[in-house]
Amino acid sequence: MITAKAETSKKCVAIDAGFSAGPANVGIQTKAGADGKISGTSVAAEFKNGATIVAGKYDLDKGAMSGSLHTSVNDQTDVAVSFTSGGDVALGANYKIDGESNVKGKVDKKGVISLFYLQKVRKDLTLKVSAAIDSGNLSGGNAHKWGLQAIMVM
């Protein structure tokens, strides 16, 4: 399947196009300015094989690349790793406790450990508790963060 769209304004034309064949998807997006200058160009690809997804993106303007590998270990556990050409790396996991709650965790290359607990209280209310711990700066003043969020759907 091929999809494409173009959005126009006085300043530029934004173009998105995608191609999908079986387990593979490829896409490109770019902008053409009124002055003829091309900018904001990026290309992305994704391949899915069973419970594993490999994805990558290349930003032509920045010369930057990023990618990820995601897999489901079982019905309750997902794990992922992401990277950038700038050397950033992150490892993450999601564990479904039951149909109404789950725990997520992530560690990045700087040693920041992020933890999330989500609980669906009612069909229209979800609570989220989060924490970010800077393991490289345990005694720092504002090195750690925490949050509580109520998400209501009307």
Mean pLDDT score: 93
How many separate helices? 0
Provide the spatial order of strands within the biggest beta sheet: 1-2-3-4-5-6-7-8-9-10-11-12
Helix coverage percent: under 10%
Helix and strand succession?
EEEEEEEEEEEE
Query: How far is the first residue's CA from the last residue's CA?
Result: 35 Å
Low-confidence stretches: none
Percent range for β-strand residues: over 45%
Shape: globular
The Cα radius of gyration reads 20 Å
Number of strands: 12
Query: What oligomeric state best describes the polypeptide chains here?
Result: single chain
Q: What number of domains? A: 2
Describe the sheet with the most strands: 12 strands, antiparallel
Structural class: mainly beta
Question: How do you describe this structure in short?
Answer:
This protein is mainly β and 154 residues long. It has no helices and twelve strands. It has strands at 2-8, 12-21, 24-33, 38-49, 52-59, 64-72, 77-84, 89-98, 101-108, 112-122, 125-134, 145-152.
